[in-house]
């Protein structure tokens, strides 16, 4: 059966950022939608307000009655749901069609002009900028995003009259191999998810295979210096880009930024394309890394016909992505920033941006490591980057889908950090410590686990100090 032949869709792991975007798409198409997740969250609360039934009980009795019909019910699962989950086992034993999120996404977008954003870092912000540029242009677009757009308060944009769809291409579990891009940005290919790919060579192979999936007549827009060899079909065009091009650079990419001006906490730059230069663009979220993200997004928008006036207006009106360098408190004596960074390179980018914007302020980095395997594989990188903060506070590792690995812990990571002012705390201890110790300078919460659930409380404490 085709996806369109079903009337009901049940999501196992509906609270995930990618799963929730798909759930919203099916609701918009008038399917009956329900789902399971392990714990409530702000995202599941929002989905329930939108009319989606959600259970946190994995028993069979918790399934709504209409989802017991295997003929009319499609089951969508995320790899984070374990194989022994009771509802998954029930669906498997009773002949239900079960598809991975990536398979459904690939099927939905295959007949559209998919503008995909892949890469170890920057893909959520870059894809959200691209979606904003396209959606607000005469071309418009649909979008499945890996984060909540601050402009729209959602991770899914729907434009029935547009044949374009912006998709965040996730490399985890080789999910992006299910996609068929018309054009793709490739922001980076720094090794990650080695629990899936085995080693750096396997990771590189995964990205090189992904580039072979771009449709004939399409294009790859790749960050200059990315260490892969694209495998492009004939007639697929290759473009390169970078962020700020140094004055002394001899090898110029096709798209880049120049003449950067920083004034009154705002950033302006010129955007150079193969045919023209668009001058004095204002960056909506004034963070240095967003210059590079914006160049990539504008390159694809420009290649697809978004004009100079639209690029100028929409880039300035972009307000960011939830948990991507969100400045939540900005007072003369205290700044609070929350960021999703969970890989050493992402941490480096985030902390470098903080130092550029607030060069004279002491920096407290509160980091929750994500996954035992990632902490093990990149412990030295995490330690090196975090050692550049003035104070480091580690939370216990957020395990997500993993079982503990012997010898891998936040204590192990803390011992490798050279910063003298360093601590290991539980979440409760952290809140008590912030409450009892007046903060000054910049405080940053970092990580991809459940540290975001502390953000409202930390913001409240810092605002009242």
Structure in words:
The protein is built from 15 helices and 21 strands. The strands form three sheets. It has a ten-stranded mixed β-sheet with strand order 8-7-9-6-10-11-12-13-14-15, with helices on both faces. A six-stranded mixed β-sheet has the order 16-17-21-18-19-20, with helices on both faces. A five-stranded parallel β-sheet has the order 3-2-1-4-5, sandwiched between helices. Helix 5 crosses helix 8, helix 10 runs parallel beside helix 12 and helix 12 crosses helix 13. The longest helix is centred in the middle third of the chain and has 15 residues. The termini are far apart.
Share of helical residues: 25-40%
Q: Give, in spatial order, the strands making up the sheet with the most strands.
A: 8-7-9-6-10-11-12-13-14-15
Bin the strand percentage.
15-25%
Q: How does the major sheet shape up?
A: 10 strands, mixed
